[in-house]
Design a protein that fits this description.
alpha+beta; 387 residues; single chain; elongated; 2 domains; BirA Bifunctional Protein, domain 2; 4-stranded mixed sheet; 36% helix; 9-stranded mixed sheet; 16 strands; 14 helices
Length: 387
């Protein structure tokens, strides 16, 4: 094997694409700042027990582990930044009231999320801590939509779900407790045969529980899904409370066209406690944005705070956009003449891209179209068009 080949599901980002990703990062962080979000930057690696404080087997499987040469303790390379931001809110900032934080940085997955997924992501997102009402969820959803709009997507679809629905069914049947992770995966895949086979794998499970899970796999569509769910699912208080939360959110945002998929609960890392949402757009095989409520994650750091937010992968977002446009640039000759140097400085201060040609070397540029050149006319340096 050639030494320069990259591991599977890892890729280099070349100039034009890298520039667009960086521009998206700047646009979105500036957007979040206008909403009052403060930027934080947690480390790429930290102690494993801190990274996995939110729980969830999937997050554990996605996290690469290594041994710290200084302490001898196990470290993890972050697979998700949300637990880290929760630690900062609960342990370091320790504020009263509402705190809005945003972040952007690389995360690494030990295994890809799917055949078309990368293992390295550039994750950007926002989190709102300290407010339990659905007003914070509304802000998160609207800001997530504005994020994809700023990237150039005019249409996007918001899909809602609530892990409290299947959890209520599982909690009402103790025999299903040990199969909870499997049930969430089966529901996410809408694996009806797999759900049916639960009665054989877990003969102590109540038939009504299996029937409820099978009905849940078919509960997706527009906003009337919650009304259908109330008719076919058990009358469990926790289940109907989760449906009430979905209805309240949909009613509070009448201008949005929501879809609801009550079985799509395997898309998070197991720490969500309330309404979850995903944003889909044509051209991407999977959700562009994922978010939702995850109250109590900060408990491991000493403060169980209400929390909601979202994140997205900038590399994934950029990959589905039309090819980036090349920027126009000015070609300039090599030289150290004071007037030339001053002309270069002046043009660059105005925001112009000026490429100074090194002697005797051809130049290949992927990002720029050289449509002008800096030439000396009667002792003065002047920009002229290239025809």
């Amino acid at each position: 094997m050639s030494t320069w080949l990259l591991p599977e599901h890892l890729a280099d980002i070349l100039p034009a694409e890298a520039r667009r990703i960086e521009e998206l990062r700047r646009v979105l962080l500036d957007l979040y700042r206008t909403y009052g979000y403060e930027l934080v930057a947690p480390p790429l690696v930290e102690y494993l027990d801190s990274l996995l404080s939110a729980g969830g087997a999937d997050l554990n499987l996605r996290t690469c582990k290594l041994v710290d040469q200084l302490s001898g303790r196990t470290l993890g390379v972050r697979a998700d930044m949300t637990p880290q931001v929760s630690r900062i809110d609960a342990h370091l900032l320790n504020r009263e009231g509402v705190t809005r934080l945003c972040y952007c940085g690389p995360v690494f997955h030990a295994r890809p999320n799917g055949l078309l997924s990368d293992r390295e992501l550039l994750q950007i997102g926002v989190e709102v801590f300290g407010h339990a009402g659905f007003e914070a969820d509304i802000e998160a959803i609207e800001l997530a939509l504005e994020s994809v709009h700023r990237a150039g997507l005019s249409t996007a679809r918001v899909d809602l779900n609530h892990p409290g629905v299947p959890r209520a069914i599982i909690d009402a049947d103790p025999a299903l407790a040990n199969f909870a992770e499997d049930i969430f995966d089966l529901l996410g895949a809408k694996d009806v045969p797999g759900l049916t086979a639960l009665s054989e794998r877990c003969p102590e499970a109540k038939p009504d529980s299996i029937d409820a899970l099978l009905a849940l796999a078919a509960l997706y569509g527009n906003a009337d899904v919650t009304a259908r769910a109330r008719k076919v699912l058990p009358g469990l208080p926790a289940l109907h409370h989760a449906l009430d939360e979905l209805d309240a959110l949909v009613s509070a945002l009448p201008d949005h066209d929501f879809s609801i998929d009550l079985a799509d609960v395997s898309s998070g890392y197991g720490y969500h406690s309330g309404v979850m949402f995903s944003i889909y757009a044509q051209g991407w095989h999977d959700a562009l944005v994922r978010g939702g409520r995850y109250d109590g994650v900060g408990r491991a750091f000493g403060r169980a705070r209400p929390a909601t937010g979202f994140s997205l992968d900038l590399r994934k977002l950029s990959s589905g956009l039309p090819p980036a446009h090349a920027a126009k640039a000015i070609r300039a000759p090599w030289g150290t003449d004071a007037k030339l140097v001053q002309a270069l400085r002046s043009l660059r201060a105005q925001g112009e891209i000026v490429v100074q040609m090194l002697p005797g070397q051809p130049h290949r540029l992927d990002e720029f179209i050289v449509d002008r050149e800096l030439v000396q006319v009667d002792g003065a340096w002047t920009v002229k068009g290239i025809h």
